[in-house]
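Q: Here's a chain of 770 amino acids. Please give me its 3D structure as tokens.
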Amino acid sequence: MSVDEDARWLEWVTKQFESIAGEDKEIDLQEFKTALKVKESFFAVRFFALFDSDGSGTISLDELLKALNLLIHGNETDKLRFLFQVYDVDGSGSIDPDELRTVLKSCLRESAISLPEEKLDDLTLALFESADKDNSGSITFEELKEELENFPEVMENLTISAANWLKPPDSQKKRRHTPRYLTRAYWHNNCRKLLFMGCYVCLNILLFTFAALKHTTVGFWVMLAKGCGQCLNFNCTFIVILMLRRCLTWLRATWVVRVFPLDQYVILHQLVGYAMFGLTVVHTGAHIINFVLLSQTASSYHLWEYLFTTRPGIGWVYGTASITGFILQFLICMMLICSSTFVRRSGHFEIFYWTHLCYIWVWALLVVHGPSFWKWFCVPGFVFLLEKIVGIAVSRMGGLYIVEVNLLPSKVTHLVIRRPLFFNYKPGDYVYINIPVIAKYEWHPFTISSAPEQHDSLWLHVRSMGQWTNRLYEYFRQPEPMSNEPKRLTTNLRNRQHQKGTQEHLFNSIGFNGAVATNKDDTIELTSYKPSRLPQSAAAEGIIQTEQGEGAQLSTKLSENHRFCNIKCYVDGPYGTPTRRIFTSEHAVLIGAGIGITPFASILQSIMYRYRMRKQNCPNCNYSWCENLKDNEMKLRKVDFIWINRDQKSFEWFVSLLTKLEMDQADEEPEGRFLEMHMYMTSALCKNDMKAIGLQMALDLLAKKENRDSITGLRTRTQPGRPDWSKVFQKVAEERKGKVHVFFCGSPVLAKMIKAHCEQAGFKFYKENF
């Protein structure tokens, strides 16, 4: 560092120290823990002891500067010496196995990782045996330094990440970058959307101009109102077209998708909604100003009569234009506010859902309000009505039942629905589901997480984030209520006999060679359990049927979080998403954040079904490979799957599926693996953090030894922290497997970041928007 930078750093640390130390100019242990934001007290105590060089029980400014100077400005040897002292708890000059186990246990807590004690012992022994080169029973500083040299990425930047508050802000002025919307990459990747938006704006300008010029004789405010009114005729009709989900899904399979931005119809719907709001405000305001001017002239009507009565006779239906105009303004404002992100994402989806149904009243009032709106609306309105009728008919055809439920970590409900014969869909599609026992009139969209090749059932994974999803989770979490029927014992006995028969049929059908017994609490016991084939669902693939009418419900509890049931539901769909394009890509990068893995679960299963169809086996040996062929069905040459989770338990949602995908690729391919998986756990501290370096080294060593990750049980090693997107996409580009398409499902903030990196790398970016 230069002299100026060093002086600036000293000034910054002094300022931070004074804000923490208070009047006594000393930092005690509690203040130290609070400032460093260290979760585990072990590291706070160890760091504090090493910072407190005089053993006074407090840290002075001089002691803090001395320690931080070593950590931030010191060389690798100085930092490694500090790390060794942290691990050497008793100060003996060496690290014994018990000390190392204590440190690793604290590392696990700091990274929010939960492992059994036996696994902790395995991690300790793996690291200790690797570092103890002379088998002396302890690790010296030289041995630790030699071991760390095997991890060059750690040696590059060994820091205490929690001490970032002590680093001064960057004094250098940020470079003036070209605005993202003016870059060549942005225009190249968004050319269809930009062209479409340009045509949309030009059309509105033309409509406004022609309508205004027709009323030049009645004054400026009437011209303004009429121009906005004509634009509203178009926009209120165009927004209907953007709601035709079935038609848009069909158009995705045609050449139209190459011309119009159908993948971004939700964004276009929102933009048209904002345009409608702006036009209605100007339209209403211009009419009010015109009424004020009319009331001040020799007119026989007062202002309030123009605004709130039908006496002036303004409007083509009994002079109701003013009254219907105010009602329309209120409804459109309410729909806009209730459809905003803070309402939909704050657990109040029902508010958005019910207020958005006001579009029926808006269209009805527009027909009464505007004399020419019906001419614009009749054709799109008829198609919309026809689509709704078809949707209701399809959703009510046949009996759909939820036949299995699994309650997964982080309040995720896994629903298994009996798939009707006529239900065909593509990987990544979504459906609207209605479950009368949860809410009779509410429909909610969820991505199908099972593959189309799975013919007997549909999977939905529902994250509890709102009122309806929480009610769904709680409904299946609570024990079954007691029956209140008059002949309860007779009915229960008959049902139990029926259940036992269906259970025996169920387990025989899925390959359970053993006896099935029913307990008093209607749970299932399995004896001589010998599965003959792998079940398709997370637990078991089963269907329990009963003929008890519309609201029939039958629940067979297998465990606290898993049960078979027979609950009526209705499904409307399927509807297409941008992920339908994945099979036309050559190199696909799938990025899921949290429950955003759901569409990719379906896609990955479908990909591997097709992958198996290409797989070839040598007749003379056990060697197998996959032919690198392109066809109309799938052009994929490589798939990179990236799953980012906040905590360890979230990986349990689809770990069985991912394990099966890894088993399908047990053999190396001539050109490398067709599917590569990358797992990231954001709550875990990075490898270059002193509080996690030992744990990450041990996890790496044990993963190489057991060929299995200790956190997920997969062969793929779970990486701590967040992905470095620049390095991720650079590696993808270097593979040169063909044109790269990136598909993302997750938070909007992360989507914006990834999209910016894709534009820099020249990759096509698609996001789930529904």
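Q: Can you summarize the key feature?
A: The first strand starts at residue 400 and ends at 408.
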